[in-house]
Design a protein that fits this description.
- The complex is a heterodimer of chains A (258) and B (66).
- Helices cover 38% and strands 16% of the residues of chain A.
- With 258 residues, chain A is of the alpha/beta class.
- In chain A, strands 5-4-3-10-9 form a five-stranded parallel β-sheet.
- In chain A, helix 5 links the parallel strand 7 and strand 8.
- Chain A is globular.
- Chain B is mainly beta.
- Chain B has one domain: Beta-grasp domain (Ubiquitin-like (UB roll)).
- Chain B is built from one helix and five strands; from the N terminus they run ββαβββ.
- A five-stranded mixed β-sheet of chain B has the order 2-1-5-3-4, with no helix packed on it.
- Chain B is globular, with a radius of gyration of 12 Å.
- The N and C termini of chain B lie far apart (39 Å).
- The chains are: A alpha/beta (258), B mainly beta (66).
């Protein structure tokens, strides 16, 4: 399989993992390691002065894993730039998952603020991976602004509803000169495999793994699905018929004819 | 003197710096960032940044999230 290259850095795995919603930090770490991922998101929160014990960072810090701090919770480009600077200081990386979703009901990204923040953050030296609408025009604008990838949504965050934006994802993939990472809404390994077969560069998965009956097994299933989907894409899928008329794959028992 | 840390009043000695505050709060060496009046202060500048009464600080750390 081809390696995934983002901002000059090579990745063997095309599965990115989010760290929310796991029952425990240990299960989260086990799932991360089972998934084979090399890119893991991390959020930020204000420290509680009475309780400084929750050290999730220890569970996601491994030599092969690129931390991808996110800006979850910000509502504007200005807040995103501030969050990005805090993240760079706290985690020692200039990689950033830019997410600006002011609407708490659907958590849909604000395209105007996302584009504005991308322009500013690229100038400040960040490697920006913006979570965005599955909008082909916006994705081109983000690419022109210097985004390292685009990360269009498949469906609203945490819904597990799969590739609701399928047709737009196809256009984005066709047009993009930067890796297209399908983010949000992927609920099953088959969804991830389909995105990869379409030519997505990677998938970002969180809820589907974290809330699974067995998150570690599900992480393995996603790993295999992403690999299978990518292999199929690289192998070149057969053309789909436009109708249901069969096309024989075996010779038609011609030996019975006299 | 009192300063606000994540909107909570915290007692400090007059003339204390951000580095003194970090020590008082036993902050870890990694995985935290501090802003003073919504401006991030790099760790290298913590010792020289003397705090004033009623200064407002935000201290963040890693959290789970997708």
């Amino acid at each position: 399989m081809d390696k995934l290259i983002i901002a000059g850095k090579e990745f063997d795995s095309r599965l990115f993992l989010g760290t929310g919603k796991f029952n425990s930090n240990q299960v989260m770490e086990d799932a991360i390691l089972a998934s084979g991922t090399e890119m893991v998101t991390v959020a930020m929160k204000r420290i509680e002065l009475e309780n400084k014990e929750d050290d999730m960072l220890r569970h996601i810090t491994h030599p092969h894993i690129q931390l991808l701090p996110n800006t979850s919770g910000v509502r504007t480009a200005e807040e995103a730039v501030f969050a990005a600077q805090m993240a760079r200081e706290a985690f020692g990386t200039n990689w950033l998952k830019l997410e600006i979703h002011p609407d708490p009901r659907y958590l849909l990204p604000d395209s105007t603020e996302t584009l504005k923040a991308t322009e500013e953050l690229v100038k400040l030296g960040f490697v920006v991976l913006p979570y965005c609408q599955a909008d082909p025009t916006l994705c081109k604008r983000l690419e022109e602004a210097g985004a390292a990838t685009v990360m269009p949504l498949a469906a609203p965050i945490g819904t597990n509803k799969g590739l609701q934006t399928r047709d737009f994802l196809r256009i984005i993939i066709e047009q993009s000169n930067v890796p297209v990472v399908v983010d949000a809404g992927i609920g099953a390994p088959s969804h991830a495999a389909e995105a990869m077969e379409m030519g997505a560069a990677a998938c970002l998965v969180n809820t589907a793994i974290a809330v699974a009956g067995n998150p570690v097994e599900m992480a393995t299933a996603f790993k295999e699905a992403v690999i299978a989907g990518r292999r199929a894409y690289e192998a070149g899928l057969g053309v789909q018929s436009e109708n249901l008329v069969a096309s024989a794959s075996s010779p038609l028992t011609a030996f019975l004819n006299k | 003197m009192k300063v606000l840390v994540n909107n909570k009043e915290t007692e400090l000695l007059n003339g204390n710096s951000i580095a003194d505050l970090a020590q008082q709060l036993k902050l870890p060496q990694q995985g935290v960032a501090i802003a003073l009046h919504n401006r991030m202060i790099p760790r290298a500048q913590w010792a020289e940044q003397i705090l004033q009464p009623n200064d407002s600080l935000v201290i963040i750390k890693a959290a789970c999230g997708g």
